[in-house]
Inverse folding.
């Protein structure tokens, strides 16, 4: 394999990886504030895409439907926290995991029951022609998605410096202490769910424009979990860097492995990265070290 | 009333350690066993082979998963993978001419060996990270089964399972297959019932409650975690083999995908952690619910005169299934087993409810 092709798949892989990171940021936001591993994030991405399309179906142009979709997802995120997760606070982690898995099933099947399983296009109006950078061909949609992921990261860095952001950081440091100084922990956690749902809607729009809006959007879960764990479950910057790494490894490895094993080696690479991370460095690249080990 | 305790005196250790110390329980279990054995004579074959039989096999599998989650306190999100390994190993062994009963044990042992690989993750991390690593291993096993033609017979392939032969005699009748499932389920149940009163069971509970504390009193958490994973994988592997042999009659990778793992986990949670009767309830509930939901929705549709689209009808039962899992976790996190326990506790002292505590 020649070096240009390798470089090209690596660069495109890195851009795709940043789009994985966009999904992973949602998991990180929730884990950071409440230590809940949100295995329903893939379903939320799918729901976000469908909600945006539903607003577009009302006759709104897509650019106007997206803010409405984001608003709706903000409410849905708060509702999920309020009605499903809040009452499980302090329960064993197995109950919380099962709750997010149950939510995943409910959101996925509920979305399909309302809007149907046929794949729909999401026309963002991004040119299909590749972008030429020297000898490399770069997919424009990936480039836009990666740019938005980086922009979201920047927004969150700024957000965590505001007053509300400081409150969220206090909750994630020590929620008992935060509570005792008068911070409303429930509200903070609800806000983090709402932000995760908003990020999911944005990721849903971008991924929907890449692969069409259907139930396969929910399969982004494994990749985003791998990204979140590799970056450290409580580090947003870590998710971004881990996304780039996983995207590149996946693209290059599948370019080499696919001809050997007959395709579809991407999932294997993701699962292998997840297992290796957990065995070698469970707190990830940038996570805090206080994870309970055996 | 039903479970009268008055007048029951345990005068020796044997009586005190009996599996069912209350006569009412013994009578009930005996009655249920007789009903189960006679089932082929009074149930029609549709109910027998498409509801009762898979329920029994899934109960055995749920008990195996409950051993690792409920008793030993270790997560396992890759249980379907373990069952699949057992099923594929058994099918391949029988195709090579190994008698089915030996092949099923071989399948169980293969599953136990690969299940130990899952255990190595549990020696390093626990809680959420163990759950995620077992989930990842599920994907690895799935991928391996699908992409290695020597195992699956090629991508998208269905491997025909040879007919079960016990002691050289072919078992073809529905009643025969049912008895195989029943025997396996009863065997696993007996094992789990006895687990409570053996050193192994108490050691597993000690490891579950706190592994440092277990180590302090001389229970090696390293050893018992390995034992727990190996045992539950063995049960899962044989259950997978029985499921294929008696119910599906052919094996494909989709029968043991991630969704099936989550379904098995839902059976354990809905049934109740570390509850044997709960495993029966949980497996039955999760297996039967889609069908009941379907008929319930169509009944509603005809009763109230609204019509639903085909896609809505196809996905609504699944959405309700998710909603029910959520509802169970909110309303009774300890599951159907706990509800049964509450009713039984109430009846134990009825009508003298004030004697409780």
């Amino acid at each position: 394999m020649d070096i240009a092709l390798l470089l090209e798949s690596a660069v495109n892989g890195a851009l795709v990886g940043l789009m994985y990171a966009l999904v992973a940021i949602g998991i990180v936001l929730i884990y950071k504030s409440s230590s809940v591993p949100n295995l329903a994030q893939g379903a939320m991405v799918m729901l976000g895409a469908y909600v945006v399309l539903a607003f577009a179906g009302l006759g709104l142009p897509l650019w106007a439907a997206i803010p409405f979709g984001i608003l709706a997802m903000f409410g849905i995120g708060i509702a999920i926290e309020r009605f499903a997760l809040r009452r499980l606070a302090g329960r064993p982690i197995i109950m919380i995991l099962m709750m997010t898995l149950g939510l995943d099933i409910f959101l996925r099947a509920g979305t399909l029951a309302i809007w149907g399983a046929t794949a729909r296009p999401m026309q963002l109006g991004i040119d299909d022609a590749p972008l030429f950078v020297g000898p490399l061909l770069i997919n424009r949609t990936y480039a836009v998605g990666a740019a938005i992921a980086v922009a979201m990261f920047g927004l969150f860095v700024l957000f965590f410096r505001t007053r509300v952001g400081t409150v969220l950081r206090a909750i994630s440091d020590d929620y008992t202490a935060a509570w005792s100084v008068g911070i409303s922990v429930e509200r903070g956690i609800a806000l983090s769910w709402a932000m995760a749902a908003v990020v999911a809607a944005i990721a849903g729009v971008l991924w929907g424009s890449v692969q069409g809006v259907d139930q396969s959007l929910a399969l982004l879960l494994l990749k985003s979990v791998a990204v979140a764990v590799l970056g450290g479950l409580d580090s947003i910057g870590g998710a971004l860097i881990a996304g780039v790494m996983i995207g590149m490894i996946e693209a290059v490895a599948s370019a080499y492995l696919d001809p050997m094993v007959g395709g579809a080696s991407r999932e294997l690479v993701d699962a292998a990265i997840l297992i290796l991370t957990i065995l070698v460095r469970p707190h990830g690249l940038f996570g805090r070290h206080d994870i309970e080990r055996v | 009333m039903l479970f009268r305790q008055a007048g029951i005196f345990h005068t020796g250790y044997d009586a005190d350690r009996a599996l069912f110390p209350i006569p009412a329980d013994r009578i009930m279990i005996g009655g249920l066993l007789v009903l189960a054995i006679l089932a082929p004579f009074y149930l029609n074959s549709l109910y027998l082979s498409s509801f009762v039989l898979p329920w029994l096999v899934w109960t055995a599998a749920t008990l195996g998963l409950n051993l690792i989650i409920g008793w030993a306190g270790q997560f396992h999100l890759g249980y379907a993978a373990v069952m699949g390994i057992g099923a594929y190993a058994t099918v391949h062994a029988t195709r090579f001419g190994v008698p089915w009963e030996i092949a099923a044990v071989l399948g169980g042992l293969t599953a136990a060996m690969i299940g130990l690989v899952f255990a190595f993750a549990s020696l390093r991390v626990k809680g959420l990270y163990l759950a995620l690593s077992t989930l990842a291993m599920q994907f690895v096993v799935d991928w391996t089964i699908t992409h290695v033609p020597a195992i699956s017979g090629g991508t998208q392939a269905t491997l025909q399972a040879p007919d079960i032969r016990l002691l050289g005699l072919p078992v073809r009748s529905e009643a025969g297959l049912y008895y195989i499932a029943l025997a396996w389920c009863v065997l696993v149940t007996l094992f789990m019932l006895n687990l409570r009163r053996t050193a192994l069971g108490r050691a597993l509970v000690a490891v579950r409650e706190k592994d440092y504390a277990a180590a302090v009193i001389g229970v090696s958490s390293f050893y018992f975690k390995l034992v727990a994973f190996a045992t539950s994988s063995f049960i899962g592997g044989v259950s997978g083999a029985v499921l294929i042999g008696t119910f599906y009659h052919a094996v494909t990778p989709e029968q043991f995908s991630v969704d099936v793992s989550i379904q098995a986990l839902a059976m354990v949670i809905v049934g109740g952690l570390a509850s044997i009767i709960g495993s029966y309830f949980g497996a039955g509930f999760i297996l039967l619910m889609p069908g009941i939901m379907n008929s319930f929705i169509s009944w509603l549709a005809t009763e109230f005169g609204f019509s639903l689209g085909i896609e809505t009808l196809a996905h609504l039962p699944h959405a309700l299934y998710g909603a029910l899992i959520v509802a169970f976790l909110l309303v009774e996190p300890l599951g159907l087993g706990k509800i049964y326990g509450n009713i039984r506790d109430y009846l134990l002292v009825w009508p003298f409810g004030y004697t409780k505590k």
User: Anything to note?
Assistant: Chain B touches chain A through 46 residues (CB under 8 Å). The radius of gyration of chain B is 22 Å. The longest helix of chain B spans residues 276-304. DSSP finds 15 helices and four strands in chain B.
